[in-house]
Amino acid sequence: MSKLGLALGGGGARGLAHLGVLKVLEQEGVEIHAITGCSMGAIVGGLYAHFKNVVKVENFLMDFLTKSEFKELGISNLSDDAETDKGYIEEFFEYVSTRVKAIRTLTNPSYFGEEITEKIFSFIPDVPIEEFEIKFSAIATDIISGQEINFTRGSLRDVVRASSAIPGIFPPVKIGKYQLIDGSASESVPVCKVKEIGADRVLAIDVTRSLHSTDMPENVFEILYRAEDITSYHLSEVRLKEADLIIRPKVKNLKWVDFHKAEKIIMAGEKVTRKNIEEIRKLANRNSILLDLGQFINRFSE
Questions:
Q1: Which of 65, 75, 125, 156 is deepest in the core (most CB within 10 A)?
Q2: Which residues of 176-197 are buried (b: 16+ CB within 10 A; e: fewer)?
């Protein structure tokens, strides 16, 4: 029996496209054996593995995004309708552009402290992920060793918070001997990690930023931000070669803070999945020997 795994990438609001993907897969009766998520992919994937119903997950997340606690964060203030797509670090420093806020940030490990961070993530169920019927894991990065950690056990709330700890915005999360930050620091789309929890074929959903840029960086910060984007892009390209099928919702030009565009983002996930549903069905039902052969060819064809 085939064991289809989903690798759900990180990307802030762009990761809401995973809801659209899951909605179509559920409607079409495509069985999911395992999910590994990074950042927003961990949030969506973990909630789906818990609820096992995409409508419940969507309602759960939309309810949170309309709560006063989320609005008070001021994340929507980072978004505008500009064509350019900046990384979360650049957006963050624009957000704390006044001198007082900048000094406060530079003398602390993160803009949001422990108390408010705990409050933000308190909406995630505190349930053990090892008991989910759909196998689930979330990746985070140990800021001390640089090691990528794939959490297959523990509290959903804790591992999701660690996987989503955007550097500079949320504080690192201590779990065991690790000090953890956002999984995207080491891998944006965790293809190999979903194989570790039992998947024998992987559908990857890539919502990373577009690398397209027409402007020359003008200062040291812009150069650093651009270098970060390039590194993340090429790292994802290498890791994605391990996937059997990749789908890319048309959200790459949206910002990580564009939560007010949730409906549009979810629809983008639905559209790309509908477009590729026959390929997804073939993947889910493909003979394992042919699948292994295809993977071997893909690795050495580029």
A1: 156
A2: eebbbbbbbbbbbbbbbbbbeb
Bridge pairing between strands 201-205 and 245-247: parallel
Q: Which residues are within 8 A (CB) of 123 and not within 5 positions of it... i.e. 6 or more apart? A: 64, 67
User: Burial of 116 by CB count in 10 Å (0-12 exposed, 13-18 middle, 19+ buried)?
Assistant: middle
Structural tokens at position 70: 């989320």
CA distance 209 to 66: 25
What is the spatial distance between Cα 180 and Cα 103, in angstroms, rounded to a whole number? Answer: 24
Q: How many residues does the chain have?
A: 302
How many whole angstroms separate alpha carbon 135 and alpha carbon 150?
13
Q: Identify whether the C-beta of residue 19 lies closer than 8 Å to the C-beta of residue 65.
A: no
User: Does residue 45 contact residue 139 with C-beta atoms inside 8 Å?
Assistant: no
Longest dimension (CA), the chain: 61
Handedness of CA 190, 269, 14, 154 (dihedral sign): negative
Q: How far apart are CA 36 and CA 21, in angstroms?
A: 14
Q: Report which secondary-structure segment, H or E, holds 204.
A: strand 201-205
- The 3-state DSSP class for residue 121 equals helix
Cα separation, 7 vs 37, whole angstroms? 6
Please tell me the predicted confidence (pLDDT) of residue 229: 65
Q: Which runs of consecutive H residues, i.e. helices, occur in the chain?
A: 17-27, 40-51, 54-65, 68-71, 88-95, 99-106, 114-121, 156-163, 191-196, 220-240, 262-275, 277-285, 288-300
Global confidence as pTM: 0.82
